[in-house]
Amino acid sequence: MDGKYTFSIIKPNAVRTGKTGPILSMINEGGFEISAIKMVQMTIQQAEAFYEVHRGKPFYDDLVEFMTSGPVIVLILRHDNAVNEFRRLLGATDPEKAEQGTVRKNFGVSVKMNAIHGSDSDENAIRESNFFFSEIERYC
Ligand code: CDP
Ligand code: MG
To answer: Ligand 1: does its nearest atom lie under 6 Å from the Cβ of 112?
Structure first.
């Protein structure tokens, strides 16, 4: 994990409404290779731990409830400068402020239900990838 990888979650609203395929297409067309992928439904405890950095913020409890409301797709993605390039593909946290052609612009429905997560640093990409995937679940 040397800047070539980032971690992503296709969030419950997007999975529930059948957007997994279209979002994976945008990810592939953006030049990202899938290094690991699976579907999981997080427990409350897992979502609280995943979003530990946001604990205490006004949106934390709602976010944890939302992220456990259904299955999600978790991914490790490979690309040069992966963290920054992927956040560009995602667009702003608020879909209304996201640029045209971004995943959140196309598939986000609110700040909370913004369709997709992307790591914000190499350090967090490693932490988040290790949270969900073991070594034998990763390729390339
Ligand atoms: O996901 P991103 O890094 O762009 O934003 P964040 O500030 O790290 O927030 C994490 C997630 O919390 C967002 O993707 C939203 O789903 C949610 N959030 C929210 O529900 N309300 C806010 N005011 C800010 C974030
Ligand atoms: Mg973030």
So the answer is: yes
